[in-house]
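Record type: monomer structure entry
Structure origin: computed from sequence
Chain ID: A
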Amino acid sequence: MLKAAKFGGSSVAGAEQFKKVKAIIDSDPTRRIVVSSAAGKRFSGDHKLTDLLYLCHAHLTYGVSCEDILDTICARFAEIRDALGLKYDVEGEFETLRCSLSKDTPVDLLVSRGEYFTSRLLAEYLGFEFVDAFDCMFFGFDGQIDTEKTYSAIKNAVEKYGKVLIPGFYGRSPTGKVKVMSRGGSDITGALAAAAADADVYENWTDVSGILMADPKIVKDPRPIAHITYGELRELAFMGASVLHEESIAPVKEKGIALNIRNTNRPEDAGTMIVDSVEEEKGEDGSFITGIAGRKNFTVITVRKRNMNTTATLRTALEILDRYKASAEHITLGLDSFAFVTATAALGDSVYDVISDIQKNCRPDDIQIQDGIALVAAVGRKMTCRPGTSGRLFGALGEHGINIRTIAQGADELSIIVGVENEKFENAIRVLYEGFAG
């Protein structure tokens, strides 16, 4: 058994969080690959070190002194070292960095030092070999990770040292420069490390006990999801749920590695296990909905034309939509009509140009526009084997006075999506949760 464990910024924010990480690692000897983010916020009003480093770069660019900010950053690292009795010469290496800074310092190099220094400290504390991401995370000229080269370097490091700690968020460009990933890049590093070593499980440790069935800002104390498939996760993410970005999942998904979302502050919680497929166990609660998510502010455009060649007319309408840089989120078809749903913000001020072009090129009998629409999705792998699922969902919404303006269901039957008025959005989420998941 081999596990790769990634720890987010809140998990390594200070010395006390470092102690929690060590307890987690020491409790399971199969956790032999660790990826660390930069130290995050310790309390409300605190600053993430990455944000401070971006601020430093802005100061350098405009010729403003950033000495006070650098002192604050160095003090954070020294505080962790001293509290844990470590030997790493933070001040010495940080002074070398400070002396090298100028207005020409690449932003990627500077902001990557948050992960670098945090990982140097954590590696010493855990007794793991520090393997710089600069030496094992390689980008191609297209800006994407060179997986063949990266996987080989990480696998060799694990075989050589047994227990390794890799900083997240950055790597090496083809020209030999430090290159950072997008925000949340440490998740990508963790997934790549797990895939490279063919780990059995990739653990993503954060400050929540897994993925919740609904937005806690809308539903009070929603239940965590014990098991979810990658397909269901993708559906929830598409509908706006705060889950891992697809790029940070792809490496482990492709290799069939289970991904476990865990809580550093509550390591006893099992968290959420994300897998290719779930074999249902006897005695489960019987809920057929895995999660509920949604987004506001969509526009529905309905086109009607008697004896219409639906395929040709729809294709023309979609080409017009694409011309204005908008896309159809969902499409419904009728004998003499069709409707497509698009994000209102994507249309912007072009909505009337789109309508005008559809009228000119499709010559419909009628076009209707309805904005202020929210999409709500009930996602669940078990819905396919439950007759009458759609009827139950629609009936529950109707009983609470929520009018359904549009309906869509994916071909794989993982989700049922309904359009409701924006002002009914939160209530629709609560109705579906309380009726089918609570």
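Annotation 1: The chain has a mean pLDDT of 92.
Annotation 2: The CA atoms of residues 212 and 319 lie 38 Å apart.
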